[in-house]
Every structure is written in structure tokens, then in C-alpha cells.
Specification:
Elements (H helix, E strand, L loop, with lengths): L10 H11 L4 H4 L18 E7 L2 H9 L4 E9 L8 H4 L7 E8 L6 H12 L7 E2 L2 E2 L5 E4 L3 H16 L10 E2 L5 E3 L7 H4 L4 H17 L11 H4 L1
Parallel strand pairs: 6-7
Antiparallel strand pairs: 1-3, 1-6, 2-3, 2-8, 4-5
Helix pairs in contact: 1-8, 3-5, 3-8, 5-8
Length: about 230
């Protein structure tokens, strides 16, 4: 896999480029899908949490750190147990975990449905089963971990809506897994995109997502990311 290639040059850089060329580029993947017809009702809450998985958490975290209304985006693991919520275990693909991102947001500024719209449009490709780009395994699956029944209802309705609209050229394989705990990842994974913008994996796989967010959702794009390090 792609991990911890912080200083890469020459042949290694070409190898990462070759991996990216083997799959569709993120720039080609990005598409503005329609907003959800069913969204959460507005209430008095000022903070809500969404947990999403869509491949390597570096890119998913990086995207939502640039979304206005998001207050934190933390990389981690969801879908398995506490004892295996560690990078070395998760990377075996046998723990039930998916690399995930816990997104705290202000529902007065951005709704859960709009979070999902960005997730499907920019953050990943929901038609790739148990992989994203060069990364393979169930730990890279496309999964929504709803934190409330209303979130589950919105997610189910939205997937059905996008399927009926043929928003993607292939079937959406995103699963919905309620009732799963989230475990933050190791510190060295947090803010990885922001801290390593020249890392070849980031350059080829994740920076195009940030550019797509700015292009497709200019009203929701924030230039300065909200970093985990800043709120610790």
C-alpha cells in the first residue's frame, strides 16, 4: 500500500504515478451529484457528527477539513472492535474496520445531506467495491456509519435516489453500518494531507479532490483547513 512515503524521488515517484494511472484519476471521478431530496430536519443542535469511510482516510479527512461548517475532521477506524483499532491490525483487512473520518459540523451552516453530497461527489468513488484507486481491501470500503436513525434514513434514501437517477455509470456499492464505534487513528495520520502536500500519493490521489471541491462546491469551500492539531 501507499503508507508513509514521506520522502520519495526518482523511481519511487514514478511507481506511485503508475499506480494512479492504473485507475481513474480523482479529477475524472469527481462529479456534482444532485443534492438529497430527503435531508435531516433542522433542530436546535449546534454540533452534529457524521462518520464516513471512502478509501484512504488521508484524502477524506483532507476534503472535509476544507468544507465550511465543519469544525473537526478526525481520521480513524470504524466497523470493528476496540482491540484491533490500530493501523497495523486494520491494514490486514481482517478486523472489520474501515479507514474512516469522524466529521463534526454545525448543522445550522451545513446539513447532513450536504455532507453526503460532498462525500459522493468529491471524497471518493462509491462504485468501487472494497478499494479506492490503488488501495485494495475491505478496510477501504465505501461505508456510511450513521450516528442516529435519522442519518440512516437520509443515507438510505439518498443512495436510492442516486441509483434511480443513474448518477454514476456503475452501481453504488456504499454500505450503511449503524451502531459502530469510531476510534481515532494514530497521531501521525492526522492532518496528513495538510502536512504533506508534496507527498506523491497525496499529489496524485488527493489534491485533485481538494481542487474538485473548490470547483464543484465554491459556496462550501474554505481555503484554510480546520486542523486536528489546532483543536488538541
Amino acid at each position: 500500500m501507499r503508507r508513509l512515503i514521506v520522502v520519495v524521488a526518482g523511481a519511487a515517484l514514478l511507481a506511485v504515478a503508475a499506480l494512479s494511472l492504473m485507475s481513474r484519476s480523482n479529477a475524472e471521478m469527481a462529479r456534482a451529484v444532485p443534492p438529497p431530496a430527503v435531508d435531516e430536519t433542522t433542530g436546535p443542535a449546534t454540533t452534529e457528527v457524521a462518520v464516513l469511510a471512502g478509501g484512504c482516510f488521508w484524502g477524506v479527512q483532507g476534503v472535509f477539513q476544507h468544507v465550511a461548517g465543519v469544525t473537526t475532521a478526525v481520521s480513524g477506524y470504524a466497523g470493528g472492535g476496540a482491540s484491533t483499532a490500530h493501523y497495523d491490525d486494520v491494514e490486514t483487512g481482517t478486523t472489520g474496520h474501515a479507514e474512516s473520518v469522524r466529521i463534526a459540523f454545525d448543522p445550522r451552516r451545513i446539513s447532513y445531506g450536504r455532507i453526503l453530497q460532498i462525500y459522493f461527489s468529491v471524497a471518493h468513488d462509491p462504485t468501487e467495491l472494497d478499494y479506492q484507486g490503488p488501495d485494495r481491501g475491505t478496510q477501504y470500503r465505501s461505508t456510511i456509519f450513521p450516528t442516529t436513525q435519522e442519518q440512516a434514513n437520509v443515507a438510505n434514501a439518498y443512495i436510492a435516489q442516486l441509483g434511480q437517477a443513474h448518477a454514476f455509470p456503475a452501481r453504488i456499492v456504499t454500505t450503511i453500518e449503524p451502531g459502530r464505534a469510531f476510534y481515532p487513528a494514530e497521531a501521525y495520520h492526522q492532518d496528513f494531507l495538510a502536512r504533506n502536500p508534496s507527498n506523491p500519493y497525496i499529489v496524485y490521489n488527493d489534491l485533485p479532490k481538494i481542487r474538485a471541491l473548490q470547483r464543484l462546491f465554491p459556496d462550501l469551500y474554505r481555503a484554510d483547513p480546520v486542523l486536528v492539531a489546532a483543536v488538541r
